[in-house]
Specification:
- The chain is an alpha+beta fold.
- The chain has 2 domains: 138 residues, no CATH class; 34 residues, no CATH class.
- It is built from 7 helices and 8 strands; from the N terminus they run E-E-H-H-H-H-H-H-E-E-E-E-E-H-E.
- Strands 7-6-5-8 form a 4-stranded mixed β-sheet, with helices on one face.
- Strand 1 and strand 2 form a beta hairpin.
- It is elongated.
- The mean pLDDT is 77.
Length: 226
């Protein structure tokens, strides 16, 4: 069964997905080998293709299927070995470790471990380990979603015929020294006043008017705009 690009079988051991990815990698490597022979692709280009495409294909969604068992490590390393042989143009008798050191490419099982650890960190897992070492609670700067859907923002209540005796603030656009600005006037029970601000947007007078009344937060105030 395939779910969001991950192959799941009854064993739930990740081997079905690794075998599927291995078959796909073999087809891609066959084409790259032909292109290297006929089109003269250099090993540097093949290495870049591996790092940017094939490696991402190997570790795709690995937190869902990677457990780090011996079977998984052996199988996925053999898949990486085929790619390194094609990129380096080495003999088939060259050891996998020598290919990884010569090409400067990290072992694929370590990449899988790193990807899984990063996933657990981002989702604040209670226990996180990397290469058998517990990371505890790493102090990382995590992304916090601050955007809110417009439908979840409470609407402003507009009262066009307010007869409240509480102090009122009226806001509008204004001209100040020939430039666009904003203004508001304040009417209280025994005080009144008007203020002008040189701003880019007249609507910014609304928070200015609100800030004027912040000195008395316990006093109820109604704010009006034109």
């Amino acid at each position: 069964m395939r779910v969001l690009g991950v192959i799941i079988d009854d064993g739930l051991n990740g081997m079905a997905h690794i075998n599927h990815v291995g078959e796909k990698m073999s087809r891609i490597l066959n084409r790259l080998t032909i292109a290297k022979t006929r089109r003269g692709l250099s090993g540097r280009v093949l290495k870049a293709l591996y790092m940017r495409a094939l490696e991402r294909l190997l570790v795709f969604a690995d937190p869902a299927w990677w457990t780090g068992t011996i079977r998984q490590v052996i199988k996925i390393t053999s898949i990486q070995r085929k790619a390194l042989l094609a990129a380096m143009g080495a003999f088939r008798t060259t050891s996998t470790i020598a290919l990884q050191v010569t090409s400067g490419i990290e072992p694929i099982d370590l990449i899988c471990e790193k990807e899984k650890a990063m996933y657990l960190v981002k989702h604040r897992a209670p226990t996180i380990s990397f290469l058998g070492v517990g990371l505890g609670n790493p102090n990382l700067a995590l992304f916090n979603e601050t955007w809110k859907h417009p439908g979840s923002i409470p609407s402003v209540r507009w009262d066009r015929n307010s007869h409240s005796q509480t102090p009122a603030i009226y806001t509008d656009g204004s001209k100040l020294d020939g430039h666009v600005g904003a203004a508001f006037c304040y009417f209280g029970t025994d005080t009144s006043g008007e203020f002008q601000f040189r701003l880019q947007e007249p609507l910014l007078s609304v928070p200015c008017g609100t800030g004027f009344n912040s000195a008395s937060p316990s006093m109820e105030t109604s704010q009006h705009t034109i």
